[in-house]
Design a protein that fits this description.
Shape: globular
Strand content: 15-25%
Number of strands: 32
Number of helices: 18
Distance between the termini: 32 Å
Largest sheet: 7 strands, mixed
Structural class: alpha+beta
Strand order of the largest sheet: 3-7-1-14-11-12-13
Bound molecules: cytidine-5'-diphosphate
Helix content: 25-40%
Radius of gyration: 27 Å
């Protein structure tokens, strides 16, 4: 295939930039040499190991639990059941969505894989062996498996422990203007309706979840090593839930082997490790295996969406409307800002200038794992982008128009930014057409359409799929957004040491995104200190300022802004000190990267190392300036940032087997100011692979008894290098007007934007068979069935 267009040129030390640019990742020497320190690498003296007994069935009443034999195992130190936790008032824990979740089941099991008992033993093998010795008697109950029947009269009630609860309803939520939307639909020439399902998938990070709890009974201090994307939020929640004073809790999030939203929540295993350590007086490690991760530790999506799009005959899109049924599993543990039970789904108006829009979302309980995490996306924006980009393609088909042309005609125009959409968002900046045109040029769009026509004439199936997405990342303004009452701000602290080297401390937590490099680059850009002279500290609540952590591509939009502003405070302070050193007035000084000098006399200047030494030295400091070069900022973003992109996917479908090959993928992204293009491309490559996976193979499915059919990598397929093409990436730059350096997030753009491009391409390939829509994942079996005009098989 064609080579990646933006290959990393080997940068020499001489052209290594001080600030933004393509520099090698500071964390790579440790990762490529196997010197990363992940949770399971940590071994504490006297450490014990925990294992969780899980429910074999989706729905059942617990009749009895007998732990006698397990406790008699010579290597077992403790066995904890729901009854034991009830006595500590810890059997149920609050979720991120104002619900509660069983830490260990007391009354019923509500999904296959649910936590039932916890064993603490000398080693992991003994803990696992002892699980077999626990005797649980269940009375099997009929499960609720299909979200569509969850609200049917007479459906079994999943959450019957809740006072007065007689159904499986979680919430109803809406956005937009129903009446105005109905009025536009009533006068539209063309209306297209389609049920679009975004099935249940899983973030499946390379490293599964785990925790090591080390409770010191003497001074009452809990040290908790956790695979977490949000160490500070976890500390606060542990203080609230477990009643341990917050200043006595230290959360350490070491190197994280991928998070993708999977490591945002507090899972029962984390709490059980703490209980295990308190009970035994020893450190306790719990690390889940792959099946536990896939079956019980959260999920993503699971939205059944009925979409409608209204347009004129000429192809002016007027309005979109949707009703969504959201499967939340057995406990409402979805992660999103409190005000938004459907996350940021209401950005489903996409990149188009519409007259009206309206959506309703209904959440239901089923006998499935809870979670609903934002898998590499900003709180349900993935579902939103998928829906609108499928609907636009369906409309193009209905109108007989080219899907690229239809999009180009309906984009929000550059002069309309900041653009208030019809469901309450204000897009900060955008210039969509050049991005789309660049993608079309890179793909050779017209040539591809000619090739497709020739192939169709020969009976070959080639498809071209387009997706144009607008993301909404960097949650978010405190006045609108909180997670369990904690406002979504982030802190940063910059210190310049006497010799001019610096440290920056962050509240966000890298899971592979290269923060140690890019956040040093932000400070380098602002202060002119080389990135290699700046250490980035994160992932330890004892060493970093408070903040809500990394998910939803919010690190750069929120914490990146905090870092830039903290560095600017340092720069201003340096100016006062330089003025004192130069015996000049501060207002007569000018800044060039790394140095203040006297306006009109560039020889009269002081470099940052000279200034930092003076700050910590003996010169008389100006009034009000204390003897350091340190600053701290907590950043409350005024708005989210709205990155966007144009993706074009080319597939070939084997008419005999239904097998889809992604032949080419062109991705043009716009994330505003680019800090490190190499890291950005890496983020995009990973997200595109995610998208191909979801579009073609990933699925957490269930049989009619509620048994999970996606509990291993044999069943839950993720793409490898064999299933993805060489990515062709490009970019445009439209800075965010409200971000200090103009940067928008990029981490998750490609996961959000790519699934519709792949699915649109598959459906485009199947046009000769009259296929207008099929649901993900487009497995060979499903594609083949669609070609036969049959319903989607599982
Ligand atoms: O929150 P998360 O780190 O997952 O997402 P992000 O803020 O979009 O950043 C992902 C990585 O790309 C980080 O290392 C960023 O600093 C980098 N990035 C960049 O170099 N330029 C941008 N405009 C945005 C992100």
């Amino acid at each position: 295939g064609p080579a990646t267009r933006e290959a990393n040129p080997s940068a020499t030390a001489a052209d290594r930039p001080i600030g933004f640019g393509r520099i090698q990742r500071k964390e790579d020497p440790r990762f490529v040499r196997g010197k990363g320190r992940y949770l399971d690498d940590i071994v504490l003296p006297g450490m014990l190991h925990g294992a969780i007994l899980r429910s074999p069935m989706a729905h059942g009443r617990i009749v009895s639990i007998d732990t006698t034999e397990a406790l008699a195992h010579p290597k077992v130190h403790a066995v904890v059941t729901g009854k034991d936790l009830e006595a500590l008032n810890l059997a149920w824990a609050p979720t991120l969505s104002a619900d509660v979740q069983a830490v260990l089941a007391t009354d019923k099991v509500r999904f296959q894989g649910q936590e039932v008992a916890f064993v603490v033993a000398e080693d992991r093998y003994a803990a696992r062996d002892a699980l077999e010795l626990i005797d649980v008697e269940y009375e099997q109950l009929t499960p609720v498996v299909d979200a569509r029947t969850a609200l049917a009269p007479g459906a079994p009630v999943v959450r019957d422990e809740m006072e007065g609860r007689t159904d499986n309803h979680v919430f109803d939520w809406e956005a937009g203007d129903a009446a105005a939307t109905d009025a536009v639909f009533a006068r539209a020439d063309v209306v297209v309706t389609q049920e679009v399902v975004y099935p249940r998938v899983h973030p499946a990070p390379m490293e599964t979840c785990g925790a090591i709890a080390d409770y010191d009974a003497v001074d009452g201090k809990l040290t908790l090593y956790e695979t977490t994307q949000a160490p500070h939020a976890h500390r606060t929640l542990f203080a609230i839930v477990a009643g341990i004073p917050e200043h006595k809790i230290r959360v350490v999030s070491p190197d994280i082997g991928g998070g993708f939203g999977n490591k945002v929540g507090i899972y029962p295993g984390y709490i059980l490790a703490v209980v295990g350590s308190i009970v035994t007086g020893r450190p306790v490690k719990w690390v889940e295996d792959r099946s536990e991760n896939l079956m019980s530790t959260s999920f993503a999506r699971d939205y059944i969406m009925t979409g409608e799009i209204a347009a004129t005959r000429e192809g002016k899109i007027l309005a979109v409307r949707t009703n969504v049924l959201a499967d939340h599993g057995a406990f409402n543990a979805t992660a999103q800002p409190t005000k938004y039970p459907a996350g940021f789904f209401h950005i489903f108006t996409g990149s188009y200038d519409l007259e009206a829009a309206h959506c309703t979302v209904t959440g239901v309980y089923t006998n499935k794992a809870p979670g609903g995490v934002a898998y590499a996306c900003s709180f349900r924006v993935t579902e939103a982008v998928y829906l609108v980009e499928r609907m636009v393609d369906l409309l193009a088909d209905e109108l007989g128009m080219d899907p690229a042309e239809l999009r180009l005609r309906n984009f929000i125009r550059p002069e309309q930014f900041p653009y208030p959409n019809k469901t309450g968002w204000e897009y900060d900046s955008g210039d969509y057409e050049p991005t789309m045109r660049l993608a079309m040029r890179m793909a050779g769009y017209d040539e591809l359409r000619r090739e497709q026509a020739e192939k169709r004439a020969r009976g070959e199936l080639m498809g071209i799929g387009i997706s144009f997405f607008t993301e909404t990342v960097g949650a978010g303004p405190r006045k609108h957004m909180d997670i369990v009452g904690l406002g979504m701000a982030d802190g940063a602290e910059v210190r310049v040491h006497p010799t001019g080297k610096a440290v920056v401390r962050l509240s966000v937590q890298s899971q592979g995104q290269g923060h140690e490099t890019t956040f040093a680059q932000i400070v380098a850009e602002e202060l002119g200190i080389p990135p290699e002279d700046i250490d980035v500290v994160h992932g330890d609540t004892d060493q970093t300022p408070f903040g809500l952590g990394t998910y939803g591509s919010r690190s750069t939009p929120v914490s990146g802004a905090a870092v830039a502003l903290a560095a600017r405070k340092v720069r201003e302070k340096a100016k006062l000190i330089a003025a004192a050193m130069l015996e000049a007035r501060p207002e007569d000084l000018e800044w060039e990267k790394g140095r203040w000098f006297v306006t009109g006399d560039p020889t009269q200047g002081r470099t940052m190392p000279e200034i930092s030494m003076a700050a910590h030295g003996t010169i008389e400091l100006p009034e009000g300036v204390d003897g350091n070069l340190d600053a701290e900022v907590t950043y409350d973003p005024p708005n989210l940032t709205f990155p966007f992109g144009a993706y074009i996917c080319v597939v070939d479908v084997d008419p005999g087997t239904g097998h889809v090959t992604v032949r080419r993928f062109v991705a043009v992204d716009d994330c505003g100011t680019r800090i490190n293009p190499m890291i950005i491309e890496g983020q995009v490559h990973g997200g595109l692979a995610d998208g191909v996976g979801m579009a073609l193979m990933e699925l957490i499915d269930f049989d009619e008894d509620g048994n999970c059919l996606g509990g291993s990598f044999m069943d839950y397929l993720i793409p490898t290098a064999m299933e993805v093409p060489d990515w062709e990436t490009g970019h445009t730059v439209t800075p965010s007007p409200h971000h200090p350096i103009g940067a928008k997030g990029i981490g998750e753009s490609a996961t959000v934007g790519s699934p519709p491009a792949v699915v649109n391409a598959v459906i485009d390939a199947l046009e000769p068979y009259g296929v207008r829509h099929m649901d993900m994942p487009c497995t060979p079996a499903r594609v083949w069935a669609a070609m036969q005009g049959r319903a989607t098989p599982p």
